[in-house]
Design brief:
Blueprint lengths: L2 H7 L5 H8 L6 H8 L7 H13 L3 H23 L3 E5 L9 H8 L4 E6 L2 H10 L7 E6 L5 H5 L2 H6 L7 E4 L12 H10 L6 E7 L5 H13 L9 H5 L6 E2 L5 E2 L15 H4 L1 E7 L2
Parallel strand pairs: 1-2, 1-4, 2-3, 4-5
Antiparallel strand pairs: 5-8, 6-8, 7-8
Length: 282
């Protein structure tokens, strides 16, 4: 645990309150993701679940790193090529280098970003570390993707973002944690319906299209640990963008979406197995 999280935890009235809020006895996707990226903000339950998942699919760390690199390229593309200056990043995870606001504000310091997540550790770090540029603004909403009304109705959203102007909705490596029974497509439609024409949806998602056996093991490992995970096909991923115009090159494995390295230096798509894409809201 870092100092910022530790100081935040002292606001609870007892150790029981701390454990109840953090749920350290069960793995959380954000903390597992942090572990894969080499971070320090995870608990034994997170590490154990992540290690089991990696045994089933040894390429999970490769996929995680390539997914993170996609985030940076997507934000740069949206700012530089499409003039986007507002971002709603849902499922942001524990802050690390190259967050959405860091990339966007390195190009235009006036860019504005609202982050959304539902893990107390993410909340603690977000308050301490997600420091905006002087010209721009960055805020955090403690909410769950599966309850889009809570996100859209949060006062922090309207304080920072002007929903009459284009917004980029970032759903990076989050929708595969929402099973069909919880209506992920309806959730995306509700969020994008609140955005004006000319906005964008940037998404990534695990797929079993390239390696169904090993990604199947990953899915089963997560589910056994109590974390729902769904690997969706290219067509199922594309359905999230229904009614939108896809930004070139369309839907690709994340490492191949506008890569900054030559093709012969990129990882095998089978080892990544995460689709990415950006759609323009009409």
């Amino acid at each position: 645990m870092t100092g910022s999280a530790g100081s935040w935890m002292t606001t609870f009235r007892s150790e029981e309150d701390q454990r109840a809020a953090l749920q350290t006895d069960r793995p959380h996707p954000a903390r597992m993701y942090d572990y894969y990226l080499g971070g320090k903000d995870h608990f034994p339950a997170d590490r154990a679940a992540a290690d089991r998942a990696e045994q089933g699919w040894p390429n999970v760390r490769v996929a995680t790193r390539e997914n993170r690199r996609f985030l940076g390229r997507a934000v740069r593309t949206l700012v530089q090529d499409y003039g986007v200056r507002q971002f709603l990043d849902v499922g942001t995870g524990i802050p690390t280098a190259g967050n959405t606001h860091e990339v966007a504000q390195s190009i235009d310091p006036q860019a504005r970003v609202v982050y959304v997540d539902n893990d107390p550790i993410v909340l603690a770090h977000a308050r301490a570390l997600l420091v905006s540029s002087t010209e721009g603004r960055t805020r955090y909403i403690d909410a769950d993707l599966r309850r889009p009304e809570a996100i859209l109705g949060a006062p922090e959203l309207s304080e920072v973002l002007d929903l009459s102007q284009p917004v980029a909705l970032m759903l990076v490596a989050i929708l595969h944690f929402v099973p069909d029974s919880e209506d992920p497509y309806g959730t995306v439609r509700k969020l994008t319906a609140a955005l004006p024409a000319g906005s964008f949806l940037a998404m990534t998602h695990l797929t079993g299209d390239l390696d169904p056996v090993e990604t199947g093991r990953l899915v089963e490992s997560y589910r056994t640990s109590g974390v729902p995970l769904a690997a969706r096909s290219r067509d199922e991923f594309a359905a999230f963008f229904d009614g939108m115009e896809l930004v070139e090159p369309g839907i690709e494995i994340v490492s191949r979406w506008r890569p900054e390295q030559p093709a012969d230096r990129l990882p095998d798509p089978v080892h990544v197995s995460v689709y990415g894409g950006i759609g323009r809201v009409r």
